[in-house]
Specification:
This protein is α+β, with helices and mostly antiparallel strands. Among the domains are: 55 residues, no CATH class; 113 residues, no CATH class. Strands 1, 2, 3, 4, 5 and 6 form a 6-stranded antiparallel beta sheet that branches. Helix 2 crosses helix 4 and helix 5 runs antiparallel to helix 6. The longest helix is centred in the N-terminal third of the chain and has 29 residues. The protein is extended, with a radius of gyration of 40 Å. The N and C termini lie far apart (119 Å).
Length: 247
């Protein structure tokens, strides 16, 4: 049997291929070869690895934060827990860490209503070129705090409690070391508020605390007690040196 020439073989193979395509049933899909995959980038990509020095820095910072948190929890626990030999031995270190920023109390569960109304005022003093002392006017710090809180839907916790709590802590006759710390803290509060509202420089501040007893409610007031106003008591603190506030 004679073989067909090469050209006729190619023609026949093409014809057979076209015939097979024509014989494919209608509606059948032609599957295309899968596309070439590319490297995935973005959200699905693996995060870049840190260098050894960066990993060491992160581990060190994490360890410091964990140790600081544990130390804070332990000191607060020793402060609020009943007195023990450990808390008595390290009382100075515990108080230095707790006061005045981390003080703990139970007034939320057993509130102690105040029996007096306090008005704390402050004034400044500076040395004149001739050596005399120039004294400024009194500024009612309590009135400034009340104005910041009144009619505010989100009153500031600092405006409500910072000055009052600082004075209450100072007035409790603390130990000499803590007393000096609270004196400096109270003087700094007054100096910051005076500096924001005065135009002259000063080097010292003085506080005046006027306390007025709060009268009891009407049902508990005896009938023979006069309804006259309660007597106020003014207390003047000594002049305290502060950092110079130049203008």
């Amino acid at each position: 049997m004679r073989e067909a020439p090469a050209g006729e073989k190619e023609t026949m193979s093409n014809a057979d291929h076209e015939g097979s395509e024509n014989e494919r049933p209608p509606g059948s899909l032609v599957t295309a070869p899968p596309p070439e995959t590319e490297p995935v980038s973005g959200a699905g990509a693996a995060p870049p690895s840190l260098s050894p020095s960066a990993e060491l820095t992160v581990a060190f910072a994490t360890g410091v934060c964990v140790l600081a948190a544990l130390a804070h929890v332990c000191l607060v626990f020793l402060h609020v827990a009943p007195s023990t030999a450990v808390s008595q031995r390290y009382e100075r270190q515990i108080d230095a860490w707790i006061y005045p920023y981390f003080e703990q109390n139970w007034q939320l569960f057993a509130p102690n209503p105040e029996s007096v109304r306090l008005r704390i005022s402050a004034r400044t003093a500076a040395m004149a070129p001739d050596g005399s002392r120039q004294v400024g006017e009194w500024l009612d710090l309590t009135a400034v705090d009340d104005a910041a809180v009144r009619h505010s839907p989100f009153p500031s916790h600092t405006a409500q409690n910072m000055l009052r709590r600082a004075w209450a802590a100072y007035d409790q006759q603390p130990t000499p070391e803590r007393g000096r710390m609270l004196q400096k803290y109270l003087a700094n509060i007054a100096a910051e508020r005076l500096a924001a509202r005065t135009r002259h420089s000063f080097e010292a501040v003085q506080l005046r605390v006027v306390s007025t007893p709060i009268a009891p409610s009407a049902p508990s007031t005896p009938a023979n007690v006069s309804s006259g106003g309660a007597r106020s008591d003014a207390r003047y603190l000594p002049w305290w040196q502060v950092e110079s506030h130049d203008r």
